[in-house]
Amino acid sequence: MRSFLIFLLTGATLWVASCANTSHQSLGPGPGGAHEAKKFSSLTVMAYNIHHCNPPSKPGLIDLEAIVSTIRKQAPDLVALQEVDVRTERSGGVHQAEEIAKRLNMHFFFGKAIDFQGGEYGVALLSRYPLSEAIVHRLPTKAETKGEPRILATAKVTLPDGTTLRFGSTHLDAQRDSVNRELQIREIVKVASAEPLPFLLAGDFNATPGTGTINLLDQAFTRTCQECAPTIPVLKPTKAIDFIAYRHPGGKFSVSSHKVIPETYASDHLPVTAIIRVQK
Questions:
Q1: Which of 89, 166, 175, 212 sits in a 20 to 30 Å window from 223, CA-based?
Q2: Residue 114: strand pairing partners
Q3: What is the mean pLDDT of residues 174-196?
Q4: pLDDT value, residue 34
Q5: Enclosing domain of residue 253
């Protein structure tokens, strides 16, 4: 697949366009200090569906700082966000991925799934470490289902000791019928199988453990939880649908901890974090 890169000299922002993408996506560095040296032995990874920064208890309100505060308290190295607005009417024209990254002093990549309300809507990656080779993979949907277009956004992460890995964020189809989710997870597995780098994947899979979708995920990746605590709804949660998973042919990843964060105001999903050890 042929792709091209356009380097914008002002703002040090890299824009990526690909034939699979059909639109430009933004990849931006965090402010100064995002390259700080760190003795590297583990990664703290977060998956968070942020509901376009709208607290479910306050319809119409955008509270971006509540999302930022929730993320900051966990001090993650990598964050996969879903339901991110970029310059939409309902979110006041704010580039949410860029603004969240700026407040957290992190690098970011936003991947557009759809055009929405004069702006864009999709998923994003945040990273304490430099991002490169960002790609938006369009995921399949059966035409007759009229499902909302879905994507997998990935980027290469370069860690302080020079180690590189592939990090991805996704948000699978939400329809009751699982046909699109299973098509989409098969495509993600196909992408991951062709990737030579270690692969960390996080997101909202709209499927629970034991379903066909998660069984397919488990054939190619290792989830950071097996008996997974529920992530929705935020009040009295009953279902686990937000996951972090990894794929490393060399077997160098292992899970130190996995937890669901009991933050019930900022979004309609509870965030998930995991500490992943990396063996040298």
A1: 175
A2: 121
A3: 97
A4: 43
A5: 3-32+41-278
